[in-house]
Design goal:
Elements: H1 27-38, E1 41-42, H2 43-50, H3 54-66, E2 70-74, E3 87-91, E4 97-104, E5 107-114, E6 119-126, H4 134-152, E7 159-166, E8 169-171, E9 176-179, E10 188-189, H5 190-198, E11 202-206, H6 207-217, E12 227-231, E13 237-242, E14 245-247, H7 278-281, H8 283-293, H9 304-316, H10 320-344, E15 348-353, H11 364-374, E16 383-388, H12 393-410, H13 421-425
Parallel strand pairs: 4-7, 7-11, 12-15, 15-16
Antiparallel strand pairs: 1-3, 2-3, 4-5, 5-6, 8-9, 9-10, 12-13, 13-14
Helix pairs in contact: 1-2, 1-3, 2-3, 6-12, 8-9, 8-10, 9-10, 10-11
The structure holds zinc ion.
Length: 428
Amino acid sequence: MEIVGSTEECAACGPFSSMEDKVAKSLTQLVFEKIRSQGRISRSDVAKDLGVSPGSVTAAATALVDAGLVREASRTPRDTSRGRPPVDLCVVADARFVVGMNLRDGLNSAVLTDFVGTVLADCDLPSPPGRKTLDAICNEIETLLDALLNKAGLERADLSAVGIGLPGFVDHPRGQVHWSPILEDRRTLVGPILSDRLGCPVHLDNDVNLLALAELWFGMGRSRSNFAVVTIEHGVGMGLILDTQLYRGAKGMGLEIGHTTVQLDGALCRCGQRGCLEAYIADYALVREASTALEWDLRVARSPQQTLEILFDQAKAGNEAARLIFERAGRYLSRGLANVIQVFDPEFLIISGARLRYDLLYAEEVLAEMHKFSDRIGRDRTEVAINTWGDTVWARGAAALALSVLTDHVAAHPVPLDTHPASHRHAG
Ligand SMILES: [Zn+2]
């Protein structure tokens, strides 16, 4: 038998970073999330769904009730002669309040929600177009926040977290904005600065990531684990949910479907490259085409939005040149969507946004062509849905981010609010 010396190298394999690096959710948090996702549920059903013993659920539920995060809700008994009526658990809606905000060129919007995500108030304020300094943006955020809280009759001290979505490349864990079309400064640590100014934890993310989160928390994605969200509202954006988690890329700079190349040496894009998908289907691309194809009198001043509205109305009314512009854009979009399906194989694809005004872009023919390009290898058809939410969706996605981070803190180690105010005010 060979003696193994202390200097002998022993073979190794397998990834160095494994599950032990990830923070596993405590049973208490899992119980809380189960209750919140169901609205109301009995202790025994929680235990059954989570596959754990009823005793461990009772202990977790007691901690949550003692911390004021969960309460009991009695059911109407079918037969009172059998003793105690059955009791469900539900989340205490006003245990915490959060704000979600969306910043964009021209308009900032915000919602205030309770701990179960119900919107209690919403507010939007115009924002001067173009890039701004960080200080100017902070001022806009504070003005919007105070207007919202005033509407709801609450104060800043009542908030547990604020989530903010903005366009561009955002490093969520660090709260750093690498680049944004609304911010002059680059590589700025916006999150910590805002947390100081607002007096509560502020969490930032890319706006389309938060649209995907809105679908996961409140929308069509609640019952799905793997799905893609594409929006064609402002440019073309994409968010991805993998195993019920938001996928952000290694540095928060991924999923830029709008800047994937669909045409070599093609049309010039805002990003400086040629042939990006966005250069064919974004608002500015359609406006560029409209001015040429419709031979409009250029002396008449029109905003890009007005141009787009006229183009759309004319296409709907049967103007062939206008219709062809949307048809061509739709063909490019169908390729872009087919590429998403080919690369990610999502179980569900949601075309999502607040208004999705230009329905010609995702007409039946566009989706049929998308299926044609993605089904070539015999894959099952990816289910596609259109979700038009209304104006608050972007801010609601930001509220979902705030709720998500807040839940990681307060539901994992529940403590009563009164005795531990720090957990309320600075849980993040
Ligand atoms: Zn581009």
